Task: structure prediction
Amino acid sequence: MSIKKDIIWRIGMLYLGVFLVGISILGKAFYIHLVEGQEYKTKAGSQSLKDITILPNRGDIYAADGRILASSVPYYEIRMDMRSTALSTQVFLNQVDSLAIRLSALFRDRTARQYKNDLMQAWQRGDRYYLVRRGVSYAELKKLKTFPIWRLGRYEGGFIYVQDNLRMKPHQHLASRTIGYLTKGPTGNVVGIEGAYDQYLSGVTGVRLMQRLAGDVWMPVNDGNEVEPRDGMDVITTIDITLQDVAHNALLQQLIRHDAHHGTAILMEVSTGAIKAMVNLEKDSDGTYRELYNYAIGESTEPGSTFKLPILMAALEDGVIDLNDSIDTGEGEYQIYDKTIRDTHREGYGKISVREVFEVSSNVGIAKIIYENYRDHPHDLIDRLISMNLNKKLGVEIKGEGTPMLSYPGDKYWSGISLAMISHGYEVMLTPLQMLTFYNAVANNGKMVKPKFVEELRYRGQKVRSFGTEVLNPSICSSSTIEKARTMLEGVVENGTAINLKNPYYRIAGKTGTAQIANKNVGYRQESKVSYQASFVGYFPADHPKYSCMVVVNSPSNSVYYGNLVAGPVFREIADKVYATSLDMHPTIDRLASRGEGGVPYSKNGSCSHLVKVLETLDMDYRQTDSRAPWIIPAGKDSVVDIYPLEVTGHLVPNVVEMGLQDALYLLEKQGLKVRVRGRGKIRNQSIPPGTPVKPGQEILLEMSFV
Result:
């Protein structure tokens, strides 16, 4: 073969090969386009386009007066990309010392050496997402952006920050369990108001389409979002934060004083069912009392003597007794089969009226009434109690409400002593809120209303929805029975077991309760010890009820466990604060009549400037014998207040009798005396006579007008 033919043959083969390769490429291209095209388009889109979620701002939770109870605050997680392509080794090694020093100075949690060691180890490992710190505030973030290395930004400095909104409670522990909190687990958020109204608070999530560019940079495809986020609504609760604080501290002091395991206090508005305060405190493992569980809503227990009210109301409604009927309680014991029922007063009360049975809380008297009138038809009593809603949940929005339990004839655990046991609060279970709701119905002339925690929803300051009062039972019984029930409740405080709560300013109606606590496996006794639950539930003012309240203290350990002594003082302290701050509860004063003869207002000895300011505000006439005297003695005469100077000498004990405590403390502690106070009101006696030379550090006892 000639050289020319050989060359032509080789060139032909080469062209043929190129042609075949081209044909195969075109064939593959058509195959991909027609067969696999959609799959590759989807993969390409997923790698270059993505939807990102835009979280809305969660709504705030407010107290009834507008103060914030819970709000979202932005916090940041700080990380560092040690392998960022734009972060040079020279920059990192030259400035890591300065960065460590600045971090240590800002957070004060580790030394600069420790920070440097951690940063160097992350650098050597090549961490792409090294965690530096969580929970950084916005102010701290602004400072971090100016630190060495990080001031260069995301790529040259490897600086990464991720925003997260943390839920903050400005009042910290106050009502924290009622307010609730956020959970991120698979079960979602179910705690407190945060959980009950999560659908309104959380808002609507937005979506934005992002495109991936060179350098792994993502940017929005459009100027706007695909779906705009909608911020959550604000929730306006019924909680009064001032009363919540009073209830919290009153309960806390009693729990500490009696070394109790836990306790709860609830304050409810009678006509609306609005919860103004709800406290739940439990002793932690370190002995500190904290809000760990909502006992008011979730804990069903045997209520004890507070259940005597619905029991006697049922008997009154059925007409089997009346308040003036006589009951022979004997010597304080009553035998039914193998069960001996005893009164707290061991000698017994003898023959007393039904009203007195309730006032002194006689277990024997109430058991006799119920057993002797219902033993042949016990279902009549239970049906009557059921008609009063005592077997139903309240259906409150906050999750975790305990289930009430009311034994019925024929049930598995019904026995011959069940009637007698139920009569004084055993073999029945209710939560504190369920029991309070019943007493609230009595105060509300028989109308049972559902407890409510939220008044309204707002969006950007505008009201979206209001929550009215929901009636659970328009009339739990006849008006005559309600009237008799209120008479009995007032008698408990006026003459009975809660006489220690009686005061000259307003009347309280209520019932004490002391119940043994049953343990699941060992009954009411464990190693010869009995645990108790002390409670007091009622309303005030008794003649025109505005608020109802219940206090429960569980397992007081210091040998005092009666409801009037353990739970009653908490009730009284809450009621006193409400009364003092609610002008509509006070009797109307005819101001003009008070200006008549002898009608000038009474005032205590004390600060001259304070008294003068009050008198001028009230447009009252006054005369001063010495306008320069800082401390004075006022005396009303006709329609004028005469103001006389009170001499106070630096080295002598001043006369503080007839003063208020605030002024007296100022004067005495300024002299270096240690002050001890007994009672309340104005000072009626001081243990060190006026004019006695002062001995710094000496104790002086002030006895007040109400001891």
